[in-house]
Design goal:
globular
C-alpha cells in the first residue's frame, strides 16, 4: 500500500480537507465542492470513496461537539430496550423517555440512506458526479431550501419528533447521495417544511448523519484499502491529512453554524448555491471544468 500518491499531494489534501470541513455542515453540499475544487486545483475528482472517508473527520467533530447529547441518548435507549421502564413494547420503544425515542428515531431515519446507498452505489461513484447534474441540483435545491425557510412554521421542537417525521427526515437525507443536494440541506429543508425550528432541524440533521456518514466512511475505508496510492486514487497520507484537517475545521463550523441559524435565515446559503451553480456552468462552457468526473491524476 503506497503512502504517497503523486496525483494528490499534501497541499492539495489540506485544501480538500479545508473544503470538506467548511462545507459538510452547511446546506451547500460538501461532495459537490470536493468534486469542483478537486478538478480546479489539478488533482482531479477525488472520488466518492475519498469523500466518504474524509467525512469521518467531520463526523468525529460531531461526536465531540454533541458528546453529552449522544451519551444521554445511548444510555436512555439502552435503559428502554433493556426493560428498565417496563417490558411492554411501548416502553421498550421509549414511551417513557424522549431521549430513548430519539435513539430509535435516529435509527429509523438512517434506513433510507443505507438502502438507497447500496442500491445506487455505482451511480453515486460515477454518473451522479457529472457537473451538469451537480449545477442543476445546487440551483434547484437552493430554491427549495429558500421556499421552505419562508413557508415553514418554525414552531416544533425536537421533542415533538414522530416516527413518520423521522422517516421523512431520513428520506430527505438520502437525497444527498446526489452531489449538490447537501445532506444537511436536505434534512433541514424537510424539517422546515414539517414545521420545526431552524435550530431543531439543524441539530437533528447533525445527529441523524452520524450512523450514515460513519458507516459509509468506514465501509469505503475497508473496501478501498487495497486501492490507496494506485494510479488515479489519493494516497493514504493525503487521505489521512485531509480527514484530520476536515475534522478540526468542521468542529469550528458546527459552533458557528448553530449560532447563525438560531438568529438568521438561510437566504445567504440559497444565494451562494445559485451563484456557485452559475459559476460551474460558465466554467463548463469555457472548458475549465469537464462534466464527466475525472479520477485524481
Amino acid at each position: 500500500m503506497a503512502l504517497v500518491d503523486s496525483s494528490v499531494g499534501m497541499w492539495e489534501a489540506i485544501i480538500l480537507g479545508l473544503v470538506q470541513g467548511l462545507t459538510e455542515f452547511l446546506p451547500v453540499s460538501s461532495s459537490a465542492h470536493l468534486r469542483i475544487v478537486g478538478e480546479l486545483i489539478g488533482s482531479g475528482d477525488p472520488g466518492a470513496a475519498f469523500t466518504a472517508i474524509t467525512q469521518i473527520g467531520t463526523e468525529t467533530a460531531v461526536l465531540l461537539y454533541f458528546r453529552r447529547d449522544i451519551a444521554t441518548i445511548c444510555r436512555a435507549w439502552w435503559r428502554a430496550i433493556s426493560g428498565k421502564h417496563g417490558t411492554d413494547r411501548a416502553s421498550r420503544l421509549g414511551s417513557h423517555d424522549p431521549d430513548a425515542r430519539m435513539g430509535w428515531y435516529i435509527g429509523l431515519g438512517s434506513i433510507p440512506i443505507v438502502v438507497l446507498g447500496l442500491l445506487f452505489q455505482d451511480a453515486i461513484e460515477q454518473p451522479f458526479r457529472n457537473l451538469y447534474l451537480i449545477a442543476a441540483t445546487l440551483a434547484g435545491f437552493a430554491l427549495v431550501l429558500g421556499w421552505a425557510d419562508r413557508r415553514g412554521a418554525k414552531v416544533r421542537a425536537l421533542t415533538s419528533l414522530t416516527p413518520r417525521h423521522a422517516l421523512i427526515f431520513g428520506l430527505a437525507q438520502a437525497l444527498a447521495l446526489v452531489p449538490g443536494v447537501s445532506r444537511s440541506g436536505g434534512t433541514i429543508t424537510a424539517g422546515l417544511l414539517l414545521g420545526y425550528t431552524r435550530e431543531a432541524a439543524a441539530r437533528y440533521s447533525f445527529l441523524l448523519a452520524i450512523p450514515a456518514v460513519l458507516g459509509s466512511g468506514l465501509y469505503q475505508l475497508v473496501s478501498s484499502l487495497g486501492e490507496f496510492g494506485t494510479p488515479g486514487t489519493p494516497g493514504v497520507a493525503a487521505t489521512v491529512v485531509a480527514t484530520l484537517v476536515a475534522g478540526v475545521v468542521g468542529y469550528v463550523v458546527i459552533i458557528g453554524f448553530l449560532r447563525i441559524v438560531s438568529t438568521y435565515s438561510y437566504k445567504p446559503f440559497v444565494v451562494y448555491r445559485i451563484v456557485l451553480a452559475a459559476v460551474v456552468l460558465v466554467l463548463l462552457t469555457v472548458g475549465v471544468l469537464q462534466p464527466v468526473a475525472l479520477t485524481a491524476g
